[in-house]
What does this fold into?
Amino acid sequence: MAVSSFRSSRWDPILIIAQIAALQSLIYIILSIILLAATILTGTELSLDLIFVDTEIRADTGFGWTVLIVWMVSACASIPLLVLIVQRAKQILDFVLTFHFFHLVFVWKVSRHFPISFAWWVLQVVDILIMTLGGEWACMHREMKPIMIHSNNNNTRQQASGSTSIVMDDHNDDSAEIGKKKRKTSDANVEDSVEPEDKGSLLTAMSKAKKALSSGHSGSSSHRYDVIPMKDIDAHNEV
It folds into this structure.
């Protein structure tokens, strides 16, 4: 999960000063720790001159190469600090140059002369490249990671709306089933109420017709169908 922090883009001198001081002190602490390990392994004495005296940076002795390697390892180890403190790729170069500018001032102050050692200047350029390129790459890699947003409220709302829709669907289904039952019951009642009347009227008309036909055998054939009760059938049709 990528943890993202958003800062205000307005000018904040107190924040900038705090970042510069934190970066300067932490890099010196990392450099001191690595130098301590190197001096213990080589059996030499630890001194602040290894940090703030330009003549200690030399390439003609074995211990001089050890100090060079320690500085480059410290530059690599300071990349996470740049990502943590600066956090923006476009500001990495500014903070790296600021650190080396103050380091130049400290070296000038401690050694009491402007640094003129060629190896020292080459080392500073190499450190600037390592810290700038590594810090910018790390910051851009961090900024390109997706930001994970916890949407607990949205999930709760979706679950609530889903449960509400389920309840509404169940209620609608129950209402539809009740309506169907009511319609079936009403239709059955209508049929039950109509059919006996219809059947009773038809049976009455048919019985009268049978009686008329049976009584017509005894009379003439011309008046055989005159006594059929048609008014009952018409009354039944009107009903």
Confidence is low (pLDDT under 50) at residues 1-6, 193-198, 218-226.
